[in-house]
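Dear colleague,

Thank you for sharing your sequence with our group. We've completed the structure prediction you requested, and as agreed, I am returning the results in plain text so they can be pasted directly into your records. Please verify that the sequence below matches your submission; if there's any discrepancy, let me know and we will rerun it promptly.
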Amino acid sequence: MQIRQLEMFRAVMQSGSTSGAAEILSVSQPAVSRMIKHVEEVLALRLFERVGGRLHPTAEAHQLMDEIEPLFISLEAVRNRVKDIQTGSKGHLRIVSTSNMASTIIPEALSGFFENRDQFQVSVDVKRWENVIEYVERGVSDLGFVFSAREIPMHSLNAQPVGMGRMVCSMSEDHKLAAVSVIRPSDLKEHKLVKLETGSPLGQLIDRSFQQFEEDIPFTVETRYCQTACDIANAISGVAIVDELTANNNTAKGMTFRNYVPKIELTAFAIFSNTRPMSVPMKKLISRVEASFVEFSSSLARGSANY
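Please find the predicted structure tokens below.
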């Protein structure tokens, strides 16, 4: 099989249709359909079933997708390396981060990083926790940043702590719970809870905190990302349990946040390969991230009267 054939199959899986795949790859829809049919013939596998005018991947299609995805991640890493050579820039750093750090600490760190680096280029990608780990492991990204309590796989990676944090309750300034200083699981029962997805690292920590208090707290909305949780909580007059970086970032939108008990402590990590040497820019950026966390902690201490 050829890479192009697998690329078309992958595009169909990602878009859910041959027309969507054709748009992604800038080819005709019939060309995609012919290629998928050819792949099925070569592999002697039925990859898609058409039901109600829509394509539905078979179990075999999902298995094949799992097998080829690492190949395309590695291919993307090669393309990025080639792009580095083509640009002729003095430096290029590829960062991948979870959304809570990408929208708060990372921009602050980059503001100082670019001093005396006018021709340096930085690519910032935002991914889920598990994808951050995968991208750094495979060399797609040089440096990863995550903010969670989950352990980092150490067989091929180094994880350097760069800051500490915790989970807090975020709500609009006029919300009833804004009148208290500490919020417990039982306090959430009578309010609209915007909950982080159970399968996510932070969502699992919240679930455990409910179990610790032996509380069954119903949620109104469930979502994966902390910023989305804050946006929804603000819109529906609800409460979201999110990391304090995100909560603090939403105070300009008329939101506030309060301590949550039981306390859920978090550690921010810089993740990098233990088989590839760290560059000077990587070390400099990590140092800037650490400094940004120190400043963030200081600003919270100065404004502690607000929550």
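Summary note from our side: The CA atoms of residues 81 and 140 lie 9 Å apart.

Kind regards,
the structure core
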